[in-house]
Amino acid sequence: MSSNLGTLFRISTFGESHCKAVGVVIDGSPPGLHLKEQDIQKQLARRRPGQSQLTTDRKEKDQVSILSGTENGVTLGSPIALKVNNQDQRPSDYGDMNSIPRPSHADYTYMAKYGIKASSGGGRSSARETIGTVASGAIAEKILTEKYGIEIVAWVSSVGPYHAAPVTQEGITREVVDQTDLRCPDPDASKQMHELIMALKEAGDSTGGTVSCIIRNVPAGLGEPVYDKLEAKLAQAMLAIPATKAFELGSGFKGTTLKGSEHNDPFTMKDEKMGTLSNNSGGIQGGISNGEFIFFRVGFKPPATISLPQQTVDYQGKPVTLAAKGRHDPCVVPRAVPIVESMAALVIIDMALRQEARNTFALT
Protein backbone atom coordinates (compact mmCIF):
# COMPACT_ATOMS: atom_id res chain seq x y z
CA MET A 1 0.00 0.00 0.00
CA SER A 2 1.14 3.57 -0.64
CA SER A 3 -0.17 5.03 2.59
CA ASN A 4 -0.05 2.62 5.56
CA LEU A 5 2.54 2.20 8.33
CA GLY A 6 2.42 0.23 11.57
CA THR A 7 0.74 -2.82 13.06
CA LEU A 8 -1.05 -1.76 16.26
CA PHE A 9 -0.40 1.99 16.04
CA ARG A 10 -1.36 2.31 12.38
CA ILE A 11 -1.34 5.40 10.21
CA SER A 12 -2.72 6.05 6.73
CA THR A 13 -1.67 9.29 5.06
CA PHE A 14 -3.44 11.03 2.20
CA GLY A 15 -2.93 13.92 -0.21
CA GLU A 16 -0.59 15.18 -2.88
CA SER A 17 1.70 18.20 -3.01
CA HIS A 18 -0.74 20.45 -4.89
CA CYS A 19 -4.17 19.10 -3.93
CA LYS A 20 -6.53 20.88 -1.50
CA ALA A 21 -5.21 19.25 1.68
CA VAL A 22 -2.95 16.57 3.10
CA GLY A 23 -3.30 14.61 6.30
CA VAL A 24 -3.39 11.34 8.17
CA VAL A 25 -5.74 8.92 9.91
CA ILE A 26 -4.33 7.23 13.02
CA ASP A 27 -5.82 3.98 14.29
CA GLY A 28 -4.71 2.40 17.55
CA SER A 29 -3.91 5.46 19.63
CA PRO A 30 -4.75 4.68 23.27
CA PRO A 31 -7.75 6.43 24.84
CA GLY A 32 -7.35 8.99 27.60
CA LEU A 33 -4.44 10.93 26.08
CA HIS A 34 -4.73 14.70 26.51
CA LEU A 35 -4.33 16.00 22.96
CA LYS A 36 -4.83 19.37 21.30
CA GLU A 37 -3.65 20.90 18.03
CA GLN A 38 -0.77 22.72 19.73
CA ASP A 39 0.70 19.35 20.79
CA ILE A 40 1.15 18.59 17.09
CA GLN A 41 1.82 22.06 15.71
CA LYS A 42 5.34 22.51 17.09
CA GLN A 43 6.80 19.66 15.03
CA LEU A 44 4.87 20.74 11.93
CA ALA A 45 6.35 24.22 12.31
CA ARG A 46 9.84 22.71 12.27
CA ARG A 47 8.99 20.83 9.05
CA ARG A 48 7.08 23.51 7.14
CA PRO A 49 8.44 25.15 3.98
CA GLY A 50 9.52 28.77 3.89
CA GLN A 51 10.84 28.82 7.47
CA SER A 52 14.28 30.17 6.51
CA GLN A 53 16.48 31.23 3.59
CA LEU A 54 17.78 27.67 3.38
CA THR A 55 14.47 26.15 2.33
CA THR A 56 12.02 26.42 -0.54
CA ASP A 57 10.32 29.80 -0.95
CA ARG A 58 6.89 28.18 -0.83
CA LYS A 59 5.01 29.71 2.11
CA GLU A 60 2.71 27.40 4.08
CA LYS A 61 1.41 27.79 7.63
CA ASP A 62 0.77 24.05 7.87
CA GLN A 63 -1.94 24.63 10.48
CA VAL A 64 -3.28 21.27 11.66
CA SER A 65 -6.93 20.51 12.48
CA ILE A 66 -8.08 17.52 14.53
CA LEU A 67 -11.20 16.23 12.77
CA SER A 68 -12.04 13.18 14.88
CA GLY A 69 -10.93 10.88 17.67
CA THR A 70 -10.99 13.38 20.54
CA GLU A 71 -13.56 14.98 22.79
CA ASN A 72 -12.83 17.89 25.10
CA GLY A 73 -9.14 17.52 24.31
CA VAL A 74 -8.93 13.81 25.24
CA THR A 75 -8.49 10.87 22.85
CA LEU A 76 -11.42 8.43 22.66
CA GLY A 77 -9.54 5.41 21.33
CA SER A 78 -11.27 5.78 17.95
CA PRO A 79 -9.41 6.81 14.78
CA ILE A 80 -7.83 10.26 14.91
CA ALA A 81 -8.06 12.22 11.65
CA LEU A 82 -5.75 15.20 11.09
CA LYS A 83 -5.85 17.64 8.15
CA VAL A 84 -3.55 20.40 6.90
CA ASN A 85 -4.74 22.59 4.04
CA ASN A 86 -2.47 23.44 1.09
CA GLN A 87 -2.55 27.21 0.62
CA ASP A 88 0.43 28.27 -1.52
CA GLN A 89 0.49 25.71 -4.30
CA ARG A 90 1.32 26.97 -7.82
CA PRO A 91 0.51 24.26 -10.39
CA SER A 92 1.26 26.71 -13.22
CA ASP A 93 4.99 26.39 -12.43
CA TYR A 94 4.89 22.83 -13.76
CA GLY A 95 3.16 23.34 -17.12
CA ASP A 96 6.28 22.98 -19.25
CA MET A 97 7.52 20.00 -17.24
CA ASN A 98 4.40 17.86 -17.51
CA SER A 99 5.71 16.09 -20.64
CA ILE A 100 9.30 15.74 -19.38
CA PRO A 101 10.27 13.36 -16.56
CA ARG A 102 12.66 15.20 -14.26
CA PRO A 103 16.06 13.46 -13.92
CA SER A 104 16.31 11.40 -10.69
CA HIS A 105 12.74 12.36 -9.74
CA ALA A 106 9.77 10.01 -9.40
CA ASP A 107 7.92 11.36 -12.45
CA TYR A 108 8.93 8.50 -14.76
CA THR A 109 8.56 5.69 -12.21
CA TYR A 110 5.07 6.85 -11.14
CA MET A 111 4.06 7.00 -14.80
CA ALA A 112 5.49 3.51 -15.37
CA LYS A 113 3.60 2.12 -12.36
CA TYR A 114 0.21 3.83 -12.64
CA GLY A 115 0.05 5.06 -16.24
CA ILE A 116 -0.65 8.54 -14.87
CA LYS A 117 1.02 10.99 -12.53
CA ALA A 118 0.21 14.24 -10.76
CA SER A 119 0.57 16.99 -13.35
CA SER A 120 2.15 19.39 -10.85
CA GLY A 121 4.55 18.95 -7.97
CA GLY A 122 5.67 15.49 -6.97
CA GLY A 123 2.24 14.13 -6.04
CA ARG A 124 2.63 11.41 -3.40
CA SER A 125 6.42 11.39 -3.90
CA SER A 126 6.64 15.00 -2.71
CA ALA A 127 7.98 15.83 0.75
CA ARG A 128 4.60 17.52 1.24
CA GLU A 129 3.27 14.02 1.98
CA THR A 130 5.42 13.87 5.14
CA ILE A 131 3.03 16.22 6.92
CA GLY A 132 0.96 13.17 7.88
CA THR A 133 4.07 11.43 9.19
CA VAL A 134 5.11 14.39 11.32
CA ALA A 135 1.61 15.03 12.67
CA SER A 136 1.04 11.40 13.68
CA GLY A 137 4.61 11.11 14.93
CA ALA A 138 4.02 14.02 17.30
CA ILE A 139 1.16 12.08 18.88
CA ALA A 140 3.24 8.91 19.06
CA GLU A 141 6.05 10.83 20.71
CA LYS A 142 3.70 12.37 23.28
CA ILE A 143 2.59 8.87 24.31
CA LEU A 144 6.18 7.60 24.47
CA THR A 145 7.29 10.54 26.59
CA GLU A 146 4.44 10.22 29.08
CA LYS A 147 4.59 6.42 29.31
CA TYR A 148 8.34 5.71 29.18
CA GLY A 149 10.15 9.04 29.35
CA ILE A 150 11.56 8.38 25.86
CA GLU A 151 13.41 11.26 24.20
CA ILE A 152 14.06 11.49 20.45
CA VAL A 153 16.51 14.05 19.08
CA ALA A 154 17.75 14.35 15.50
CA TRP A 155 20.22 16.82 14.02
CA VAL A 156 22.05 17.64 10.78
CA SER A 157 25.42 15.92 10.91
CA SER A 158 26.63 16.66 7.38
CA VAL A 159 25.85 18.72 4.29
CA GLY A 160 27.82 18.08 1.13
CA PRO A 161 31.49 17.73 2.11
CA TYR A 162 31.08 19.38 5.52
CA HIS A 163 30.67 17.23 8.65
CA ALA A 164 29.70 18.31 12.15
CA ALA A 165 31.92 17.36 15.06
CA PRO A 166 30.63 14.37 17.10
CA VAL A 167 28.10 15.40 19.74
CA THR A 168 27.72 14.30 23.34
CA GLN A 169 24.77 11.97 22.96
CA GLU A 170 23.72 12.37 26.58
CA GLY A 171 23.44 16.14 26.28
CA ILE A 172 22.12 16.84 22.78
CA THR A 173 18.63 18.43 22.89
CA ARG A 174 16.22 19.92 20.41
CA GLU A 175 16.84 23.32 21.98
CA VAL A 176 20.53 22.99 21.11
CA VAL A 177 19.74 21.68 17.63
CA ASP A 178 17.31 24.51 16.85
CA GLN A 179 19.78 27.28 17.71
CA THR A 180 20.63 27.52 13.98
CA ASP A 181 18.40 27.37 10.90
CA LEU A 182 20.46 24.42 9.71
CA ARG A 183 19.73 22.38 12.86
CA CYS A 184 23.41 21.50 13.13
CA PRO A 185 24.83 21.73 16.68
CA ASP A 186 28.37 22.48 15.46
CA PRO A 187 28.56 26.30 14.87
CA ASP A 188 31.67 26.18 12.67
CA ALA A 189 30.38 23.38 10.44
CA SER A 190 26.94 24.99 10.37
CA LYS A 191 28.43 28.19 8.95
CA GLN A 192 30.16 26.27 6.16
CA MET A 193 27.01 24.31 5.41
CA HIS A 194 24.93 27.49 5.35
CA GLU A 195 27.26 29.19 2.88
CA LEU A 196 27.25 26.13 0.61
CA ILE A 197 23.46 25.81 0.55
CA MET A 198 22.93 29.52 -0.13
CA ALA A 199 25.46 29.44 -2.99
CA LEU A 200 23.77 26.41 -4.53
CA LYS A 201 20.33 27.96 -4.12
CA GLU A 202 21.53 31.05 -5.97
CA ALA A 203 23.05 28.87 -8.70
CA GLY A 204 19.90 26.73 -9.05
CA ASP A 205 21.65 23.58 -7.84
CA SER A 206 21.30 21.32 -4.78
CA THR A 207 23.21 19.13 -2.34
CA GLY A 208 22.62 16.20 0.00
CA GLY A 209 23.52 15.45 3.60
CA THR A 210 22.93 13.24 6.62
CA VAL A 211 20.69 13.41 9.65
CA SER A 212 21.72 11.65 12.86
CA CYS A 213 19.19 10.58 15.49
CA ILE A 214 19.36 9.35 19.07
CA ILE A 215 16.52 7.73 21.03
CA ARG A 216 17.00 7.72 24.81
CA ASN A 217 15.28 5.67 27.53
CA VAL A 218 13.96 2.94 25.25
CA PRO A 219 13.25 -0.12 27.43
CA ALA A 220 15.01 -3.38 26.61
CA GLY A 221 12.93 -5.93 24.74
CA LEU A 222 11.36 -3.98 21.85
CA GLY A 223 11.50 -5.61 18.43
CA GLU A 224 9.89 -8.63 16.76
CA PRO A 225 12.43 -11.06 15.22
CA VAL A 226 13.01 -12.28 12.73
CA TYR A 227 11.37 -10.17 10.04
CA ASP A 228 10.21 -7.25 12.18
CA LYS A 229 13.52 -6.62 13.90
CA LEU A 230 13.67 -3.16 15.41
CA GLU A 231 16.52 -1.99 13.16
CA ALA A 232 14.72 -3.43 10.12
CA LYS A 233 11.56 -1.44 10.89
CA LEU A 234 13.60 1.70 11.59
CA ALA A 235 15.42 1.25 8.27
CA GLN A 236 12.15 0.69 6.42
CA ALA A 237 10.61 3.80 7.97
CA MET A 238 13.62 6.02 7.32
CA LEU A 239 14.01 4.86 3.73
CA ALA A 240 10.32 5.64 3.16
CA ILE A 241 11.13 9.34 3.66
CA PRO A 242 11.51 11.12 0.31
CA ALA A 243 15.11 11.60 -0.93
CA THR A 244 16.65 9.03 1.43
CA LYS A 245 19.37 6.73 0.10
CA ALA A 246 21.18 5.28 3.13
CA PHE A 247 20.65 4.04 6.70
CA GLU A 248 23.29 3.18 9.31
CA LEU A 249 22.75 1.86 12.85
CA GLY A 250 25.40 2.24 15.54
CA SER A 251 28.88 1.79 14.10
CA GLY A 252 27.38 1.33 10.64
CA PHE A 253 29.81 0.83 7.78
CA LYS A 254 32.74 1.83 9.98
CA GLY A 255 32.05 -1.27 12.04
CA THR A 256 32.85 -3.45 9.05
CA THR A 257 36.50 -2.40 9.35
CA LEU A 258 36.87 -3.44 13.01
CA LYS A 259 37.80 -6.71 14.67
CA GLY A 260 35.29 -8.43 16.93
CA SER A 261 37.44 -7.62 19.94
CA GLU A 262 37.17 -3.93 19.02
CA HIS A 263 33.50 -3.90 18.07
CA ASN A 264 31.91 -6.00 20.83
CA ASP A 265 29.98 -4.18 23.60
CA PRO A 266 30.91 -5.82 26.95
CA PHE A 267 28.10 -6.03 29.51
CA THR A 268 28.16 -4.36 32.90
CA MET A 269 25.69 -3.39 35.64
CA LYS A 270 24.19 0.10 35.55
CA ASP A 271 21.86 1.11 38.38
CA GLU A 272 21.19 -2.57 39.11
CA LYS A 273 20.32 -3.26 35.46
CA MET A 274 22.26 -4.86 32.62
CA GLY A 275 23.98 -2.42 30.31
CA THR A 276 26.94 -2.18 27.98
CA LEU A 277 30.24 -0.37 28.34
CA SER A 278 30.24 0.73 24.68
CA ASN A 279 27.43 1.07 22.17
CA ASN A 280 28.70 0.00 18.77
CA SER A 281 25.44 -1.96 18.42
CA GLY A 282 23.47 1.29 18.42
CA GLY A 283 21.13 0.10 21.16
CA ILE A 284 19.84 -2.95 19.26
CA GLN A 285 21.09 -6.54 19.35
CA GLY A 286 19.42 -9.45 17.60
CA GLY A 287 16.73 -7.08 16.39
CA ILE A 288 15.71 -6.21 19.97
CA SER A 289 16.43 -3.06 21.97
CA ASN A 290 18.97 -3.62 24.76
CA GLY A 291 18.18 -0.53 26.84
CA GLU A 292 21.08 1.59 25.58
CA PHE A 293 20.67 4.68 23.42
CA ILE A 294 19.46 3.85 19.93
CA PHE A 295 21.65 5.74 17.47
CA PHE A 296 21.37 5.84 13.68
CA ARG A 297 22.09 8.00 10.64
CA VAL A 298 20.04 8.64 7.51
CA GLY A 299 21.54 9.75 4.18
CA PHE A 300 19.62 12.16 1.92
CA LYS A 301 20.46 12.71 -1.74
CA PRO A 302 20.51 16.15 -3.39
CA PRO A 303 16.98 17.28 -4.32
CA ALA A 304 16.31 16.19 -7.88
CA THR A 305 14.46 19.29 -9.09
CA ILE A 306 17.03 21.95 -9.99
CA SER A 307 16.79 24.98 -12.28
CA LEU A 308 20.13 24.37 -14.03
CA PRO A 309 19.66 23.25 -17.66
CA GLN A 310 19.91 19.46 -18.05
CA GLN A 311 20.03 17.42 -21.23
CA THR A 312 17.38 14.68 -21.05
CA VAL A 313 14.45 13.30 -23.07
CA ASP A 314 10.68 13.69 -22.89
CA TYR A 315 8.20 10.80 -22.57
CA GLN A 316 8.35 10.25 -26.34
CA GLY A 317 12.13 9.90 -26.21
CA LYS A 318 12.79 13.24 -27.91
CA PRO A 319 15.97 15.01 -26.67
CA VAL A 320 15.13 18.18 -24.73
CA THR A 321 16.78 20.66 -22.40
CA LEU A 322 15.04 20.90 -19.04
CA ALA A 323 15.47 23.86 -16.71
CA ALA A 324 12.93 23.11 -13.99
CA LYS A 325 10.71 25.85 -12.60
CA GLY A 326 9.02 25.98 -9.22
CA ARG A 327 10.13 26.42 -5.61
CA HIS A 328 12.28 23.66 -4.22
CA ASP A 329 14.68 23.03 -1.35
CA PRO A 330 18.36 23.26 -2.30
CA CYS A 331 19.01 20.80 0.56
CA VAL A 332 16.35 18.84 2.44
CA VAL A 333 18.20 17.94 5.64
CA PRO A 334 17.27 20.99 7.80
CA ARG A 335 13.57 20.22 7.29
CA ALA A 336 14.14 16.47 7.44
CA VAL A 337 15.13 16.57 11.13
CA PRO A 338 11.54 16.50 12.52
CA ILE A 339 10.55 13.95 9.86
CA VAL A 340 13.25 11.56 11.05
CA GLU A 341 12.20 12.10 14.69
CA SER A 342 8.56 11.45 13.81
CA MET A 343 9.30 8.28 11.85
CA ALA A 344 11.36 7.01 14.78
CA ALA A 345 8.48 7.73 17.17
CA LEU A 346 6.03 5.83 14.96
CA VAL A 347 8.27 2.75 14.88
CA ILE A 348 8.97 2.80 18.64
CA ILE A 349 5.32 3.30 19.68
CA ASP A 350 4.20 0.42 17.47
CA MET A 351 6.89 -1.88 18.90
CA ALA A 352 6.10 -0.76 22.45
CA LEU A 353 2.41 -1.56 22.01
CA ARG A 354 3.28 -4.97 20.56
CA GLN A 355 5.52 -5.70 23.54
CA GLU A 356 2.84 -4.52 25.97
CA ALA A 357 0.41 -6.98 24.36
CA ARG A 358 2.99 -9.76 24.66
CA ASN A 359 3.58 -8.96 28.35
CA THR A 360 -0.15 -8.78 29.08
CA PHE A 361 -0.80 -12.25 27.68
CA ALA A 362 2.36 -13.89 29.03
CA LEU A 363 1.60 -17.20 30.74
CA THR A 364 4.40 -16.92 33.30
Could you give a short description of this structure?
The protein is an alpha+beta fold. The chain has helices at 37-47, 107-114, 130-148, 174-177, 187-203, 230-239, 260-263, 333-360, and strands at 4-5, 10-14, 21-27, 64-68, 70-71, 74-75, 80-85, 151-159, 162-163, 209-216, 244-249, 267-270, 273-276, 284-285, 288-289, 294-300, 310-313, 319-322. A hairpin with a 2-residue loop joins strand 12 (267-270) and strand 13 (273-276).
Topology:
Layout: E1 4-5, E2 10-14, E3 21-27, H1 37-47, E4 64-68, E5 70-71, E6 74-75, E7 80-85, H2 107-114, H3 130-148, E8 151-159, E9 162-163, H4 174-177, H5 187-203, E10 209-216, H6 230-239, E11 244-249, H7 260-263, E12 267-270, E13 273-276, E14 284-285, E15 288-289, E16 294-300, E17 310-313, E18 319-322, H8 333-360
Antiparallel strand pairs: 1-2, 2-3, 3-7, 4-7, 5-6, 8-9, 8-10, 10-16, 11-16, 12-13, 14-15, 17-18
Helix pairs in contact: 1-3, 1-8, 3-8, 6-8
Description:
This protein is globular. Helix 1 crosses helix 3 and helix 1 packs across helix 8 (about 335-360). The protein has helices spanning about 35-45, 105-115, 130-150, 175, 185-205, 230-240, 260-265, 335-360; strands at about 5, 10-15, 20-25, 65-70, 70, 75, 80-85, 150-160, 160-165, 210-215, 245-250, 265-270, 275, 285, 290, 295-300, 310-315, 320. About 30% of the residues lie in helices and about 20% in strands. It has a five-stranded antiparallel sheet, covered by helices on one side. The longest helix has 28 residues, at about 335-360. It starts with a strand and ends with a helix. The mean pLDDT is about 95. With about 375 residues, it is an alpha+beta fold. The protein has a single domain (about 5-360), classed as Chorismate synthase AroC (Chorismate synthase, AroC fold). The protein contains eight helices and 18 strands.
